[in-house]
Amino acid sequence: MQKTKLSTQSILPLTCSRSGTCCFGKAVMLNPWELLNFSKEKNISPREFRDLYCEFGGIRLRFDGKPDKKGQKACSQYIDGAGCSVHLGRPLACRLYPLGRQIQFNKAEYIYHGDKFPCLNDCAEVLELPKFSVGEYLKGQQVEQFEKAQDEYLKVMQNIADIAFELLLDSGLSATGDTKTIAAWRALGNEAPELLAERLGKEWIDCLMIPEIPETIENPITFAQKHNDLILLKAQEKFGSIETFQELQEASVLIMGVALHLSRGLGADTKGISEHWIEIAKSHGAKE
């Protein structure tokens, strides 16, 4: 699909017509910080929000509302005729829409997909509304804190994957000629999210998506860092006394699954990331 890169000075028809069409038929992925913010706005616990309104253990917002004329179901938070019921707590994907954001060479770029600006497909009336620069739009959508959370969770994702690398490479497992671990990593990268969530199990899914961190923490970077520490501590408790190569192999696969499940919640290319990590492991002696 064609991809158009934008600068913060790019002028686009970004004034919303409030028709609500963007609240139907989407796949809105969530990181743990976003899930927490949704729950605060809903005035329920993160666990309650996740169990009521999310899929795959909390990484995707449920779209199970009344369908539109195209048969696309509404977001679970959309109220017909009124709009988003948790607008102030909405995640980065909703704040950015119709724009996308990608990280290349540690720099964020804003984009949109397709040969036509997305809003024009269903909301041509936006052409009659005031235009904004991308920078003005982002400021108005208050994306800064949510972008910080997204970027910090990318670091958390890598830190979790590093545990899987250590269990494979630093433990002596790869030196035994093990080929099962890399094969399993590849399978994880291709696995459907509902199956991966089931494989990880409730204990790890809860640790990943609804960490026991005080809700009073307002800084997303601090929140993600504390979450990172909890995950590393849990891994140490679970894997610190492993004695057999079979246990090492199973632990490496499990914790890689946690990293890849988080990657999907961050909207990343889970299969591509899996292949990237496999090549790194192979370059350090792992076998396939």
Give a quick set of tags describing it.
globular; 2 domains; mainly alpha; 9 strands; three-stranded antiparallel β-sheet; 288 residues
Strand order of the largest sheet: 1-8-7
Helix content: 40-55%
In one word, what is the shape?
Answer: globular
Gap between N and C termini: 32 Å
Give the number of DSSP strands.
9
* Main pleated-sheet profile: 3 strands, antiparallel
What do you see in this structure?
With 288 residues, the protein is mainly alpha-helical. It has two domains: 106 residues, no CATH class; 139 residues, no CATH class. Helices cover 50% and strands 10% of the residues. The strands form four sheets. A three-stranded antiparallel beta sheet has the order 1-8-7, with no helix packed on it. The chain has a two-stranded antiparallel ribbon with strand order 2-9. It has a two-stranded antiparallel sheet with strand order 3-4. The two termini are 32 Å apart.
